[in-house]
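Pipeline run #58 for the internal structure catalog. This entry was flagged by the ingest filter as a single-chain record with no existing model, so it goes straight to prediction. Upstream metadata was stripped on purpose; only the residue string is passed forward. Reviewer on rotation: M.T. Logging verbosity set to normal.
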Amino acid sequence: IMVPLLLFLFWSFIQLQRSLHLKEALVTGLATTLAFSAKITTPFLISLLLGGYALFRKSALRIKLISWMTLLGGFFAFLFLWRVYSSAMKLPFAMPFAYALQAFNSRTHAAGGFNLPQIAENLAYLFFWLGPFTFLLFLILAVGRVWEWGKARKFYETDLFLIAGAFLVAGYTVVGGTSFGFPRYHASGIALLFLFSGLRLSRIPPDAMPWRRASGVILAGFLIEIFTLGDFFYLLRFELREAMLVSNSAARAVLEKMALKAFLYFSSFGLLFLFCRKKWLPVSASVLLILFSLGSNLGLNFLQNRGGYQTSYNYGTRHIVQAAQWIRERTPAETR
């Protein structure tokens, strides 16, 4: 629920910057309250970002003050509503705030600083869940925008989506982690990056798009995903773990299998990219990345939905009951 509420907050705040009326201020305050009601950390960071944008952009002092008052008003409205709710339900008022601080502390200071291997693992999971082509598209568009800003030094409202999205994704990669390898904390930031990408691509003159050939590229990506890489998460999250419990040689065999699949996958898409650019579909690289992403993700979804091993975003549910029973029989009752 955080994603639509955060998008609502961005939309209302931008409307407030364009039209400083009571209605826009009330809607922005409401959006702030709703966002904080869904999650504490993300809206807090985003509110600081939006407030900083209002403070440093070239505008009248009145607009800056009203923007900050609106954001603060929405936050205090949330505190009031939470006080009423927590009192009625007999819950500790400080509970969500203490939990957020405890979670941050447990992943930084209490853990002896930032865990670089864990950050690298989080980044790898983010890369594969986004899809390599979506990841690459984000990177190309972001670098292009930073390059433009370096030459012109102009800041646009749409840049808010890039800054906020990149900040959330980077922050949760370093601190938030991935639940069972799934970057669910990153969802809000990813949505903002998609929004930035769409707005960014809308400024580029559209290519003449032969839709039949574009559909052929998507189908090719679908088939490449199925017959080369397959469900890489199953290999990474289940087969590799299972092999590591057996022996080093079994784990090495799975790693070699993963490397071969990745090589075939990227080589096939590389050849498809060259073929499209020269003959089949001579459109921009960004358009091809979108088509590749669609085909690849459709293939992965097809495999995951047909696989009986997947539940939610976790893998390897085979023998869970037996494993739990084995542990139960060998642990003292007081430690359960």
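catalog note: The chain has a mean pLDDT of 86.
catalog note: The beta strands are 310-311, 314-315.
status: ready for reviewer M.T.
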